[in-house]
TrEMBL record:
Species name: Cyclobacterium amurskyense
Transmembrane segments: 53-75, 87-110, 122-142, 154-175
Protein name in UniProt: Permease of the drug/metabolite transporter (DMT) superfamily
Keyword Protein biosynthesis: no
SUPFAM superfamilies: Cytochrome c
GO terms assigned for molecular function: electron transfer activity; heme binding; metal ion binding
UniProt keyword list: Heme, Iron, Membrane, Metal-binding, Transmembrane, Transmembrane helix
PROSITE patterns the record matches: CYTC
Upper lineage: Bacteria, Pseudomonadati, Bacteroidota, Cytophagia, Cytophagales
InterPro entries in the cross-refs: Cyt_c-like_dom (IPR009056), Cyt_c-like_dom_sf (IPR036909), Cyt_c_Planctomycete-type (IPR011429), DUF1549 (IPR011444), DUF1553 (IPR022655), DUF2231_TM (IPR019251)
Chain ranges of the Cytochrome c domain: 220-311
Length: 832
């Protein structure tokens, strides 16, 4: 008879566990046989089902025991033979045995119940790993208990901590499997569903009154149903993931059903398992969707109505998108007749919108606010005190339009300011990843010249897509070192970035798998990327090569056909010519929307990279795009027309929550109050107080270009220097990825940089010394600070407070404090 001492017991546990692993396939096969034998009775052998369902109960023991053991071990770090040692030993034993039992029961549960997919695999193997670690832990504990082996004690403690972490990870994935991947984050207020019932836009009463549905009505009805499926069900029930053997993304699979049979019974919603499941409470095990989100009453009513109507799904419906797709062709809406005192086309369209929304026009902003706004928006600079005085005194009725034209004629200041926007969008920079190793190419010379010369936008795009040496950096992308996933090869980068920046669409999802947020398919993304490739790309799905060679075609075949046998240069020339043709209304809607957003703070379509979304005024968007074409694709003329409009000159609107800007219920009332960009703030300090950046910090010098007239503003513009701590804190991106807009909300990092940053502090210190030499008297300095930074004289209470700090003959430190205090005022920081 074998004596069951500690070592033999450990050996026995290990043998039992590995036997369980070794025969797990046989257990599953046996379970399958039992299931097959019981199929006619539609039941599972009760004992296996009972044992499997004990898994959620059993799994809590190793979780609690092992984590508690690890916490107690931390208490005994100074004394391994602490009085808590017997308790820790008992907890480790209980946790290890519990882990083994939980794994056995979990294997049964996975086979019997409706679980599957990668999440199950991760949970299963982290659980098995935890059990193995637990056995290893018992071995270590047996060798260290009562001994003075310091090294062994350290190994045991590390193993215990690792085991506690492992059981926590396994528990997390188990919870994700049961409650959904977002079971923690879905409760947060900002994680609202992207699709809501108001997007259904369908009148079921009207459908009911029609009796027999025409094919057109059937297509419309099933289109709305498929939209609900796409936004709520495809993540688990499409070709990318098939849970419970059920797919809802095509007609054939939807009616075929899943492992439990058909889920749709045409003509009888009450007996359809799909309807039963979507009506279950969100915490019910069989509820659909299973990610913790429930369908709205309207969505449930829609699906039920569709099924009761016989679940019509005409073959023609397969050609109808379940996502909104914006029209590709240009559209020329008829301009309404002028009314009131409005004579600008933009204002006539906005007036029509205001009437629909029952919004009244407000008085335009005063001259001071207008002048500062157009200076910052058009040039990124601020007016001088003399310019404020001259403009306010100017009595000409068209002085605002004349000033806009005057600023747009300052070619170099204009180009330097807009260089920031296009550097972000085209991920062009002066230093950074790839430049030294020739894995990335700068396009700054070409970009600056194009902006300064106001190159027509169609030519601008053509030279980006079919580039020469100076403009090739955008589509060449970044050649990352080492292995990169398939969606980040340079050809796919080009497809994604051209899609995002030039066409306002998201191909990032579709470059890995069929998109969950649009109708774009993996094959379409690869076919578009193939245009940028010297050789034929091989399609990879989720970074796994499929062996299929990609086709070669433009995203919208109605724009033209790419010759798949042509070389890369020929394909790029074809692409450039096809995309810029007037028939591609999307291209021009995208750019006018971007310019509108830069000047107004919120696009007609939002986000500006998703042009399939509904604009708040389709007519205004379409008119701007076609007028842009009529004006010869002139960006300055587009900016001019927006800037002289009454809509642009409305008082700026405060937004309490930035999420409202992306909300479907957004209502336009005027430009949104914005925070200055990193470059605008830095240039404001340099212009008004003291230069922040030196000549040595300038990474790009426009004066080296052969131009007839140069800007002479007396300091180095922030747009021309490399990214640094100050600019980064204030929002400049690293430009390794495309960024078409920046967050306008203040952050803690910005507050810390503005209050404690070395670069700003040194600038204000040097500026204070210069101002002391120039002005000397405290009252003069106070007035000048307010006039220079805020464009006005201080109010009496402001003057009194400032003088109390400065005194009649202030020291530089006091002047520096005044600079700092005024710079942090919203009146300086924000664009009103």
């Amino acid at each position: 008879m074998i004596k069951m001492n500690k070592d033999n017991l450990l050996l026995f546990c290990g043998i039992v566990f590995f036997l369980v692993l070794g025969v797990s396939n046989e257990v599953q096969a046996f379970g399958t046989v039992l299931l097959f034998q019981a199929e006619e009775a539609e039941t599972t052998f009760w004992l296996w089902q009972l044992f499997g369902r004990l898994h959620p109960l059993a799994v809590h023991f190793p979780v609690s025991f092992l984590i508690l053991a690890a916490l107690l071990e931390l208490i005994t770090l100074k004394d391994f033979n602490h009085k808590l040692r017997p308790g820790i030993t008992a907890l480790v034993w209980a946790g290890a045995v519990g882990a083994i039992v939980a794994v056995i029961l979990g294997l049964l549960l996975a086979n019997i119940e409706d679980y599957g997919g990668s999440m199950l695999d991760i949970h299963q193997w982290t659980g098995i790993g935890t059990a193995l670690l637990s056995i290893f832990l018992l071995v270590l504990m047996g060798k260290t208990t009562g001994s003075q082996n310091a090294k062994g004690v350290k190994v045991f403690r590390v193993a215990l901590i690792v085991t506690a972490v492992a059981v926590s990870v396994a528990g997390h994935f188990g919870a994700s499997l049961t409650h959904g991947e977002e079971y923690l984050t879905e409760t947060l207020p900002w994680n609202e569903p992207e699709f809501s019932s108001k997007d259904l836009d369908i009148d079921l009463v009207a459908f009911e009154s029609e009796g027999e549905l025409s094919e057109q009505k059937q297509v419309e009805l099933v289109g709305k149903v498929r939209a609900v499926f796409a936004h709520n069900c495809y993540k688990c029930h499409s070709d990318a993931k098939i849970k419970g053997e059920l797919r809802l993304d095509t007609k054939e699979f939807a009616f075929e059903g899943g492992e439990s049979g058909p889920v749709i019974i045409p003509g009888n919603a009450g007996k359809s398992d799909l309807v039963r499941r979507i009506k279950l409470p969100k915490d019910h095990k069989e509820a659909m969707p299973s990610k913790g989100k429930v369908l709205s009453d309207d969505e449930i009513a829609l699906i039920s109505f569709w099924i009761d109507k016989g679940a019509p799904w005409p073959d023609a419906a397969e050609d109808v998108s379940v996502y909104r797709v914006a029209e590709l062709a240009p559209r020329r809406p008829n301009l309404p007749a002028p009314r009131k005192d409005l004579n600008q086309a933009i204002d006539i369209w906005v007036d029509e919108y205001f009437e629909e929304q029952e919004i009244d026009w407000r008085a335009p902003v005063d001259d001071k606010v207008f002048l500062r706004r157009i200076y910052l928006d058009l040039l990124g600079l601020q007016p001088s005190t003399e310019e404020y005085d001259t403009f306010i005194k100017d009595s000409r009725p068209d002085k605002r339009a004349l000033k806009v034209r005057e600023l747009l004629d300052r070619d170099d200041d204009y180009a330097t300011h807009w260089l920031t926007f296009w550097n972000d969008a085209l991920r062009n920079d002066y230093t950074g990843t790839g430049y030294i190793t020739k894995g990335r190419y700068a396009i700054t010379d070409w970009l600056y010249s194009s902006l300064r010369d106001n190159k027509p936008y169609d030519q601008f795009v053509k030279q980006l897509l079919n580039p020469d040496e100076k403009s090739k950096g955008f589509i060449e992308g970044i050649r990352w070192r080492g292995d990169v996933n398939a969606s980040q090869v340079t050809e796919m980068q080009a497809a994604q970035n051209v899609g995002q920046v030039i066409l306002g669409l998201n191909l990032k999802c579709a470059s890995c798998h069929d998109s969950f947020v649009s109708d774009w398919k993996l094959e379409e993304a690869y076919a578009f990327a193939n245009i940028f490739s010297d050789s034929s790309l091989v399609v990879s799905r989720c970074d796994i090569p499929t062996g299929e060679k990609a086709g070669t075609k433009i995203l919208w075949e109605e724009l033209g056909e790419i010759d798949s046998t042509a070389n890369r240069a020929e394909k790029l020339e074809q692409l450039a010519n096809y995309l810029v043709q007037p028939a591609n209304g999307r291209l021009y809607r995208t750019i006018v929307n971007r310019i509108w957003k830069q000047l107004m703070g919120r696009g007609l379509v939002e986000p500006a990279d998703e042009m399939d979304n509904i604009p708040w005024s389709q007519d205004l968007l379409d008119w701007l795009a076609t007028d842009f074409e009529d004006e010869g694709y002139d960006l300055k003329e587009l900016i001019y027309k927006i800037a002289i409009s009454k809509a642009y000159q409305q008082p700026a609107v405060a937004v309490e929550n930035p999420l409202f800007l992306a909300d479907d219920d957004f209502v336009f009332e005027g430009a949104v109050i914005r925070r200055m960009t990193a470059e605008q703030f830095s240039d404001g300090v340099s212009q008004k107080i003291h230069p922040i950046f030196s000549e040595e910090q300038m990474k790009y010098n426009p004066n080296e270009l052969a131009v007839s007239e140069q800007s002479d503003i007396g300091f180095v513009r922030a747009a021309l220097v490399a990214n640094n701590g100050l600019l980064k804190a204030l929002g400049r991106t690293n430009r390794e990825v495309v960024m078409t807009s920046r967050d306008s909300q203040a952050s803690l990092l910005q507050a810390l940089e503005l209050t404690n940053g070395e670069q700003l502090n040194n600038t204000l210190k040097e500026g204070a010394v210069k101002w002391k030499e120039k002005y000397e008297a405290g009252d003069i300095i106070v007035h000048e600070v307010y006039r220079q930074l805020l464009g006005r004289d201080p109010q009496q209470n402001e003057f009194n407070i400032a003088m109390a700090v400065l005194g009649e003959s202030p020291e530089p430190e006091a002047i520096q404090d005044l600079f700092w205090a005024v710079l942090l005022l919203p009146e300086f920081q924000l664009i009103y």
